[in-house]
Automatic annotation (TrEMBL):
<dbReference type="GO" id="GO:0008168">
    <property type="term" value="F:methyltransferase activity"/>
</dbReference>
<feature type="domain" description="Methyltransferase">
    <location>
        <begin position="174"/>
        <end position="293"/>
    </location>
</feature>
<dbReference type="Pfam" id="PF21320">
    <property type="entry name" value="WHD_Rv2258c"/>
</dbReference>
<keyword id="KW-0489">Methyltransferase</keyword>
<dbReference type="InterPro" id="IPR036390">
    <property type="entry name" value="WH_DNA-bd_sf"/>
</dbReference>
<dbReference type="InterPro" id="IPR048711">
    <property type="entry name" value="WHD_Rv2258c"/>
</dbReference>
<protein>
    <submittedName>
        <fullName>Class I SAM-dependent methyltransferase</fullName>
    </submittedName>
</protein>
<dbReference type="InterPro" id="IPR036388">
    <property type="entry name" value="WH-like_DNA-bd_sf"/>
</dbReference>
<dbReference type="InterPro" id="IPR029063">
    <property type="entry name" value="SAM-dependent_MTases_sf"/>
</dbReference>
<feature type="domain" description="S-adenosylmethionine-dependent methyltransferase Rv2258c-like winged HTH">
    <location>
        <begin position="24"/>
        <end position="95"/>
    </location>
</feature>
<dbReference type="InterPro" id="IPR053173">
    <property type="entry name" value="SAM-binding_MTase"/>
</dbReference>
<dbReference type="Pfam" id="PF13847">
    <property type="entry name" value="Methyltransf_31"/>
</dbReference>
<keyword id="KW-0808">Transferase</keyword>
<dbReference type="GO" id="GO:0032259">
    <property type="term" value="P:methylation"/>
</dbReference>
<dbReference type="InterPro" id="IPR025714">
    <property type="entry name" value="Methyltranfer_dom"/>
</dbReference>
Length: 354
């Protein structure tokens, strides 16, 4: 196959994949997966009745999902309204259980949100400015890392870092600052895993902080988890913390050196900064891996634009290579940058020591 035809086929496949994610958006927003998982198999008539939706639309959605292998159908020869569809048990954690670490139902929501930004991005690419702010709710990225943090952050990742784990379990109770905490799930996950620590989350987004405060209250953690609207890059932050975390956020911060300098100034003696950021290659390569392309895609659509509104922005983007982080840390006054000897399928961990 020549290069032209290969590209045509690739774009065609990718168009189908994008449309599949939009169909997942519909299933997530309309509660279709939840109904199939909790109430069992259904015909299009039954699923429409359960979810308060239109049967003809639901029939098309179910047929598409069966054609795509996302749901099973009992008898393809049955009349269209009599075919019974099942969400396979293996697909339930991915599409219907937002508490499961494998949950990916939010991917459709993310892609739909990104698509709505495209007209604004066209203008931003011309002017060099940031596109208009996108609210967290009702379809922001608030839930993007929720299952990952609640299942892995305090239960697997932090215990795998002996120096940090030991301090979080020791007396006097440790204090943690969670920079760019979003809607607060990382703060909550740490407090749940370490029942004596206190966590203070900071974020610039007022709506996100309001949601985080509600989440902490619902989790029964208001006595140990607090939040405030604040700029992580503001040198006037005060307090003494044994750990400062910047989780999946440093590349989004317009002035990362200022944020790291602020974090260093907040550390108590013996404290350190933990950074979780994208797992990317050490050097630019092309063509790149599927993962590298994924990170570049989000950088184009969200991460870089989010940082472009500040005239002093470093404009890092999602593909922040280890050498870039080392440079930022050195400029912020850190003496040591450790790349921790484990990573996830998406993220790399760094520990910064003053």
């Amino acid at each position: 196959m020549d290069r032209t035809n290969a590209l045509v086929e690739r774009i065609f496949r990718n168009a189908g994949a994008a449309l599949e994610l939009y169909s997942i958006y519909l299933g997530e927003r309309l509660g279709l997966y939840q109904s199939l998982a909790r109430q069992g198999p259904a015909t299009s008539v039954e699923l429409a009745e359960r979810t308060g939706t239109n049967e003809r639309y639901i029939r098309e959605w179910l047929e598409h999902h069966a054609a795509s292998g996302l749901v099973d159908v009992d008898d393809v020869t049955a009349a269209p309204t009599e075919r019974r569809y099942t969400l396979p048990p293996e697909h339930v954690p991915v599409l219907a259980d937002p508490d499961h670490v494998d949950y990916h139902g939010y991917k459709g929501v993310e892609l739909a949100r990104a698509a709505r930004m495209l007209p604004d991005l066209v203008e931003a690419y011309r002017t060099g400015d940031a596109p208009p702010h996108q609210p967290w709710e009702p379809e922001g990225r608030a839930e993007f890392n929720r299952p990952t943090y609640l299942n892995l952050l305090g239960k697997q990742w932090l215990p795998a870092i002996p120096e940090i784990d030991e301090r979080l379990r020791a007396d006097p109770p440790a204090r943690v600052a969670d920079f760019a905490c979003g809607t607060g799930w990382s703060s909550i996950a740490m407090a749940q895993a370490y029942p004596h620590i206190t966590v203070h989350g900071l974020d610039l987004d007022e709506d996100a902080i309001a949601a985080a405060t509600q989440h902490a209250q619902s989790a029964g953690l208001s006595d140990r988890v607090s939040y405030s609207v604040a700029n992580a890059s503001d040198a006037s932050q005060s307090g003494r913390f044994d750990l400062v975390t910047i989780l999946e956020a440093l590349h989004d911060i317009p002035r990362p050196v200022d944020a790291l300098r602020s974090a260093r100034q907040l550390l108590a003696p013996g404290g350190s900064v933990l950074i979780l950021d994208e797992l990317v290659e050490d050097e630019f390569t092309a063509p790149a891996s599927e993962l590298e392309r994924y990170h570049y895609g989000w950088s184009l659509m969200s991460c870089l634009p989010d940082a472009m509104g500040d005239p002093e922005s470093a404009a890092t983007g999602a593909v922040m290579r280890p050498a870039t982080l080392r440079r930022y840390a050195t400029e912020a006054g850190f003496q040591e940058v450790q790349i921790l000897p484990f990573h996830t399928s998406l993220f790399r961990f760094y520990r910064l020591i003053p």
